[in-house]
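Fold this sequence, please.
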Amino acid sequence: MGYSKGRSYAPTFTIKTIWGLAKSPELALDDDTLYSIIYRETGKDSMRQLSQKEINKVCHALSALKDSAKGNGGSGRTDTGGNKLTKAKRQKIYRLTGELGWNNNNARINGFVKKMFGVERLEWLNNEQCSKLIEMLKKMVERETAKKDGDGVEGKASPVHAGADKGH
């Protein structure tokens, strides 16, 4: 993967490079997450189907993730891996996920975030995405509370939403 003096060409990445980046201590990706990144970057679900150009694209994406996880991405994340501007909103999100019983499984909230926003981790959401997630979680908590109380969702949720809409 080195460069020769006087020549300017890109390093040759391989499938082994993809696995090495994915399993690095900074990322420690499971197979499902790695394959979802490969699919997001290339539209293919098998590494063996990737062209050299696609392998390079996946390696660059993984390198960018690795750099941001190390704090070298220059993206304004704190040393705990979160956006400073969304810290208060993330605390609210953790309170809501606690009410849902999700706090003992970080993969669950990250999976939900990935499904809804296409972002790998809760800490990487921007301000607007955090706000949308909070509203989604509030509705989920309302439904769970209604189920436990034995009430219908419609009857219990309507007054809360009417007051919440005026504030926004």
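The helical segments are 15-22, 31-42, 52-70, 87-100, 106-117, 127-149, 153-167. Residues 84-167 form one domain.
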